[in-house]
Amino acid sequence: MVLAVFCVLSLLALSSGVLVFVVDSMARATFCLLVSFLAVAAMVLMTGLAYLGIVIILMMIIEMVIMAVFMVMFMMNPAGLMPMSMFHNTRGAAVISGLVFTGLAAGIL
Predict the structure, then answer these.
(1) Phi then psi for 90, rounded to 5 degrees?
(2) Residue 14: its pLDDT value, please?
(3) Which of 41, 44, 64, 81 has its CA 20 to 30 A from that of 55?
(4) To the nearest 10°, the Cα dihedral for 81, 84, 88, 90?
């Protein structure tokens, strides 16, 4: 039973984590990230680390609510729900990430 719950929570964390990068609005990405963090916190609770699990839950809920409030205040589109492109300077980002990966891989060796 515990293994089944762990598998469900891990699939929920992974799928909602992927959805953060797939959805086309900032508000939906924020709530997908919250679901992912809450699933991870539930897995931490399953390991018997009650204090750490509760701290993760409280911290993530407060953080995501604050992020949503600032998103509503400062975004040009209403409440961050309008579709928008989440990709900016993809070529530059690919070059930078490749360089960082190469540097980290060289540091390991």
Answers:
(1) -65, -35
(2) 95
(3) 81
(4) 110
Q: How confident is the model at residue 57 (pLDDT cuts 50, 70, 90)?
A: very high
**Greater pLDDT, 21 or 26:** 21
Q: Is 47 helix (H, G, I), strand (E, B) or coil?
A: coil
Give the whole-angstrom CA distance, residue 22 versus residue 55.
Answer: 28
CB atoms within 10 A of CB 34: 19
Write down the pTM of the prediction. Answer: 0.70
Tokens of 91: 């070529």
Looking at the predicted structure, is the pLDDT value of residue 79 above 60?
no
Give dist(CA 100, CA 1) in Å, integer.
41
- What the block records as the tokens of 32 is 């997908």
Please tell me the distance from the alpha carbon of residue 38 to that of residue 29, in angstroms, as a whole number: 14
Query: How far is 27 from 65, CA to CA, in rounded Å?
Result: 10
